[in-house]
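Researcher: Going back to the complex we discussed earlier. I've cleaned up the inputs and rechecked each line, so this should be the final set. Can you rerun the prediction on the complete assembly and write out the structure?
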Amino acid sequence: MSLAQLDLKASIRTAVLEVFDTMLSMELTDLEDSRDITENGNRIVGTVSLAGDVLGNVNLHVGEAFARCLTAGMLGMALEEVDSEEEIHDVIGELSNMIGGNLKSKLCDAGLPCDLSIPSITSGRDFHIESKGWALNERLVFGHAEHVAMIQAFIKPGV
Amino acid sequence: MSLKVLTVDDSKTIRMIVKKAFRTYDCTLSEGENGVEGLALAAKERPDLIILDITMPVMTGVEMLAKMKTEPALKDIPVIMLTAEAGKENVMKIVQMGVKDYVVKPFKPEQLIERVSKLFTLQEKPEEAPKEDEARKYFNLNGDVPVLTIPSKVLRPTIVETETALKAKVGEMKSAGMKKMILDLSKVSETNVSLIKLIIAAMDLCQGGGIQVRTVATPGLEKELKEFQETSSVAIFPNQEAAMAAFA
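Model: Rerun complete. Updated structure for the full complex:
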């Protein structure tokens, strides 16, 4: 299979819904709009990269309030018990790792072998992740209660 | 004998989820953050089972597994891979390296337990009797009435500890025919969901034991408790003397 035949949007959507449902028992809804995800606070982005026959990045963006909510859910804690930035970053990193791992598996099974990086975290209020020069570029927005999560996936053939 | 399990994953979140999965079983868990730590712990602890991530910094799970297979003392320890990478080639590779099974992330704790149960008979952990000191540290007496004093800030571990202590105390009180208890919240400085859960659990346990409870709290906390549906109808007394006087 070539990259052009890959339905990146469907692959990412399936991965996100499965990860949130399995790990957090959380049902996400698709949002068509591009609402502000910062929820009047920091934005936290978990990133994993792909390298091999395919190069790519998968970024999971959530606002700080949603990140705390996800951390409480993953660690089985009450929301007010989440007081460590390290825990929040680890949870967002692990969620992005699972979503990226799912995409990597699909690419490898389609004859496009690649390796997955360990996750990294970016957090702040005002930044932009550049998405130029990729063959495929998808952006999906999901909602849960008052929270919003955004996934960006960029891929292109490896050299 | 307790099953010794070593979990090796760079994510603290995953290590916590694995530990929680085994919480109700008679297991001893140790944990490492990468393959190097995992190898050192495997050599030291000689675990019965290793649950191993693949993508980790310093040394990957695949590299750790390869090194284990060259060590006579470690090569036969069963390994279950826990990985976000479920591609066929990846799975074939780790199966050929001799792993017993693999679990794909995302996973539910019960899926992991199910895989482990194929290799070992997991024994339920015997319910631990609370240590006497732990069980008593929240209690004192006002006359002949036990007083359960809740600390300033209630977090999740406090609920578990207090409930365990309270269960033991309710059992003692039933045996001794004691029917009154004071729940003293006057030291509480922060109202949160854990506190509300604890109050409800205490009320339920005492009611189940036929014990009357009188609750003491500051006016500020009383006002906050009224705002929670679950505690809105709890009668609050300003101090222990007033609570004692209110017992029928």
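Model: Worth noting: The domain at 3-154 of chain A is CATH 3.40.1550.10 (Chemotaxis protein chec).
Researcher: Good, that matches what I expected from the previous run.
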